[in-house]
Design goal:
DNA polymerase, domain 1, alpha+beta, 5 helices, single chain, 2 domains, 153 residues
């Protein structure tokens, strides 16, 4: 039996076990490879997507847990905050290896959409579940500040 979910604004029918993690539905069933597998236990943030605008870890979210929520992946981002974050990431050369960056960007966008003028404490709190093995944390924080400033302008 197919499960219908909304991904990046489109309703899609998925033939998968209801216990299948959303991460694998996105990558293997829908071909959306921007969401990464990192740890499989919700500890690193590489698999972050938005569920009704809130960041969630897709590696531990079963397909049956999605229900009628709107799922947005890195491929489906189009908001002003998304554009500001992407521009800041590029301008400040945030990425080193890049593996964690889709999760980092998803968390940063959710932060800015909920807190347009975040403090360093806000940024640290929102990004604390995202691990960067290359330790680009200072550039990430600077990019979030730059994106917030661009959204104000």
């Amino acid at each position: 039996m197919a499960t219908n979910i909304n991904v990046n604004g489109a309703s899609v029918a998925i033939e998968a076990d209801p216990d299948t993690p959303l991460l694998w539905v996105l990558r293997e069933h829908l071909g959306l490879k921007g969401t990464k597998y990192g740890c499989g236990i919700s500890a690193c943030g590489a698999c972050t997507v938005h569920m009704d605008g809130m960041p969630v870890r897709s590696c531990v979210l079963p397909l049956e847990g999605v229900g009628t929520a709107r799922i947005t992946t890195i491929e489906g981002l189009e908001s002003p905050a998304a554009r500001a974050v992407r521009d800041a990431w590029i301008a400040l050369d945030v990425v080193q290896c890049g593996y964690c960056q889709s999760g980092q960007i998803m968390s940063a966008i959710a932060l800015l959409e909920g807190t347009p003028a975040p403090t360093d404490e806000d940024i640290d709190g929102a990004m604390s579940g995202n691990i960067c093995r290359c330790a680009t944390y200072l550039r990430i924080r600077a990019a979030i500040r730059a994106a917030a400033a661009a959204l104000k302008a």
